[in-house]
Amino acid sequence: MTPCYLKNKIRNLPQESGIYIFKGPQKEHLYIGKAANLKSRVLSYLKTEDVRIQKMVSLAKSLEYVATDSDIEALILESQLIKKFRPSFNIVMRDDKQYSFVVFSDEKYQKIFTTHQPQGHEKTIGPFTDAGALKTTLRLFRRIFPYCTCKKPHNNFCLNYHIGKCLGFCCLKKQMTNNQQLTTYRKNIKEIKDVLSGKKESLIKNLEKEMVQLAKSGDLEKAIELRNKISDLKRIFENAKIIKNSDILKTHRSGLESLLKLQKPIIRIEGYDVSNVQGLHATGSMVTFIHGQPDKNFYRKFKILKKKDVSLRPDLNRPNDTAMLREIISRRFNHPEWPFPDLILIDGGKAQLNAAYLVISNYYTTFLKKQRAPLLIALTKDEKHRGDKIYIQDRKTPLPLTKLSPFDKNLLLAIDSEAHRFAIGYYRKLHRKSLK
Length: 436
Description:
Elements: H1 3-11, E1 18-23, E2 29-35, H2 38-43, H3 51-59, E3 62-67, H4 71-85, H5 88-92, E4 100-104, E5 112-115, E6 124-128, H6 131-144, H7 159-162, H8 179-196, H9 200-216, H10 220-239, H11 246-251, H12 256-259, E7 268-277, E8 280-290, E9 293-294, E10 300-303, H13 308-311, E11 312-313, E12 318-319, H14 321-332, E13 343-347, H15 350-367, E14 375-381, E15 387-392, E16 399-400, H16 406-435
Parallel strand pairs: 7-13, 13-14
Antiparallel strand pairs: 1-2, 1-3, 4-5, 4-6, 7-8, 8-9, 8-10, 11-12, 14-15, 15-16
């Protein structure tokens, strides 16, 4: 493949996650790779001094790509294609590092772990080229489909049970489990297998059918729980970005600064979300990102106070999310000892943006007259619950996310996703506590 041909192909590559495939003269697969930014990754092949890459590019006659919604989907798709086509240069260019495989143990309550040597393990999925990304992916899936990682049985519920990452009954010394509990546990394991095997779409369809049946049979609590699982799974695939290079993030100057006409760089961003079911166990979250990285020292959770104007909207008899957000923002700014953000991102639309703006502007007018208030952005979703557009303070019309740079878009989606995860985690904790 000539440098000129590769340059022309690179012009058409998107700056999004996906997989790329170098093919030889007989359309054989020479190399398959994944990237968070396809254009940037393939462009690096023109500048490399690695003789193996230079040889592979010289032998290649064509370049193909498949864009994905997230790094996780790229990771899984890359694994499937490498296993299917076994490209020769994927072996040559490993830098003597071994691929990772996901192993499912043969225990009654199966464990899931990663290994570089799958020999002797019948139930494995792989290979995966990025061990760090794989472990991050498994951690994300475990929040939706809990499973046990305890090495020894114990008398009391483990910490992972209390934070929603373990079903609890699976690792107790005195197991009082029934067939239904065992079925639930094995179902979680199977669903993780399906996702890692590339069966995401069929899994979501099956879960949605099950949710409808539960609702029809009157088991609304389980239907709502399943709905939340489906929502979380979709959110992971549509929004999750596995960003590992913190140095790039810290030195990157965001394009949002010029868009919002800020006079200083965006360093600190706070994200807010609300979680409840018909106003019950309503919770709110605040997450903080500094230089594009989450800082959990400044995460805060809020239990919504029970008030008539907060719990339900009297006109529609449904949760008043706007009033809940207003309460959260008010309580946050009652803590001047917490560092103030440069930008605030809230999950919602124009109504939520206006509610937050009134609270913040009143606070700064009253107490911080000489300081510039943080700017506000509200992130709205489409019918598939994917980030769609943003409402910006003092701007009449919303801005599609497609108008932002890939970095800014992915950062906002990551903050919104983290705020949602943190809020719903607290909601589930309160809900479990109420059942006891």
